[in-house]
Amino acid sequence: MAAGVKHNSDRAALALAALILFGSRVWAQSAVPTDAAQPTDAAERGEAAGQGELAFQGYYLAQSGQPLLQTSGAALNFQEFVPGFGLIEGNVEGYGSDGFRAGTNFLALEQVPLWGWHWDFVGGDFRFSSNVVENPFLNIYTPEIAGRGVRIAVKRKDRAYQFFAGVETVLVGPRIPFLVTLPQSMVGATLQQKLGKRWEFGLRYVHLTTESSALTSYSNYFLPSRQFQNSNSLTLQSSYSFTNRLSLYSEVTYGTASTFTPSPAAQQPFSLLVGPSWQKTKFGIHANYIRQSTTYLPLLGYFVGDRKGPYVEGYYRPAGWVNIYGSASAYSNNLEHNPDVPTFHSSGYTAGANFVLPWKFNAGASLASLNLTERDPSRSGPFVSDNRQLNINLGRPIGRHNLRFSLIDMKLNSNLLPQTQRFGELEDTFIWKRLVLGGAVRLQNSHTTENRNTLFYRGSIQANLKRVSAYGYWEEGSDLVNRSVFSTNAYSSTVVGLSTPLIKGWSLQLEAFRNNLNTALNPENIFLFGNSGLGLNTALAAFNQRSAYFRISKQFHWGKEMPGFGRSLEQYTAEHAPLVGSVQGFVIEQSLAGPRPAANVTVSLDHYRAAVTDASGRYEFVHVAEGPHEVGLDQEQLPTDYEPGPAPTAIVSVQPQAIARADFTVVRLAYLTGRIVAPVDAPLDGVVIRLAGTNRYTTPDLSGNFAFYNLREGEYDVVIDVDTLPDGYLLASSPSIRSLASSSASPAAPIRFELRLKPQPNKPIRQLFEEHIHVGTGGR
Question: What residues does each domain of the chain span?
Fold first, then answer.
């Protein structure tokens, strides 16, 4: 039955793809106006607006004693917008590698306005997140649902439905991945619903059917106690936000499965995940408890479920120069108490802090501990492993150099066999315009029953010259872990790459890799083999691996150019190199009303890359070279109503395939406005108005208007200098007025000072005249 479902899903996918392509063309032709007055806009005329990319690529891998592995082929992807119909998107990939291999192949029609909904139709390969509601916990791994078949989605602003059917696929192959279909069919549906701004929930139903041939052909895709023939799972996910900072995520699953072989333990059908999340600028905490059975989501080839335990992580920033973080967990498996399955118990914690120190120093320290106990039915007694790792790093920029020292101290204790390893590394990265040079030396020490020391050397170079990008990476040293009193392992690895534009819009990317591992007799113990006939040949084994990769591609457009077309192909090399990570963080505005995200703020990386924060204040740099980098607010492009916070720049250390984070603050600038009201023709331009307690002052214009700009939010005493009032005038209002500096978001009432003419004194001659009149009148 499963085989029939697989073939039927392939036919349905091809039929849907053909229907999409044919229907889009018919609709596009019917959408073209036929009247004489043709619109000038391309979209209104019904002209196609599209983009695409054609690429030819190949990967070749040779290693000692192994046949050459080669993969080469072509890939084409395109998007075409059809007015009044939707977006047509397609991808075609085919490669030769021990026969023909298919990559990701699909044809999709998206955002079709029909019956008051937007519809998506996908035929071929599809993949989507199995989390219907966004999961805020990074310690929970949930695989994507990937298959070859059909997927139909219908959605509105607050609601979405989805149906999918097909066979499961997985990505395999080095460097150029292609898809392999597994003997497992899937049928399912999802529902997503938002209720107001605080509550969101979703439902996910998945039915899986596995062919019996998978037990022999794909036995390594099964895990102990997971040999399921059929399974059904229904999951309810919910996220509720009590405030902007506090939310609660929960997930409940009911799953059942039938096995190929009888199981000695009963199934646990219910699974649960629940936990709160509190996010604030200075403090944050995430905690959850998980209990997943073996029937949670038994996708072939993935380990999901069969675990339970609590987890908590958090951070605290008591000041701008320090960030304290930590996490703790305790997990165990074998919820069904199956006597044939190994049982694991793990507990661990992590604690650390990052510091921004005086004289441009930055430092970090962390301590991690992990205790693991395994009980295997095939062995007597438990296997205990108790491990601890201390990590300390210190860095400082000096001119164009970024120096970093790191120390890692590990104590490993497996079944009462203690071992100590210590790694000390000194690294320097030199940055000059678009050239980055790096070098490091690492001293490794291991101590068990004997003491071992070895050195590792590493160097890197990356250059960006206009549209040409080149990089190189080299590492060489002795393998400390596999070294013994009888043999040593010498290791070296070299990677070089180049990305450059070609003629007529084509681009080329090249990369070469070489890895050598030579195992030789330990020179300190050659005397043990003095009579063995080995002579001067002390080599025991040699492993030499070489690979080459190329990619030639071109992007092209037709019709009206689509908004936000593509990304720069010149960045392809840096994006796919194994020595890159990412930098991300938030820019927060500090105000009297409390912290809030700062949007449209430009953040720079190494003074030549820029990113703009989104509505949540988040920015991100992807494909950043390994090593220390300077990231900070771009003050030349900072909006005029902001000024940088106390730490506008930071030094981050980027690790391969990892995320480095740096957050910044800005302060919104406010203003005060006012007016001096005075009789007409009063000379007011010489009057001085001051801000008490500061050295800020201003003078009004001829109409008496004045203002103070670029002030931080707060209350100010505005004082008029009475010594500068014009002659013949006096102050009729208070000389000091307290006002709240306002911004465009919350304007305050203008300040008002008032002047009036001084009263005129009586002249002496007039007084005498009045007295004379008074005396004369009294004599009658």
Answer: 580-662, 671-757
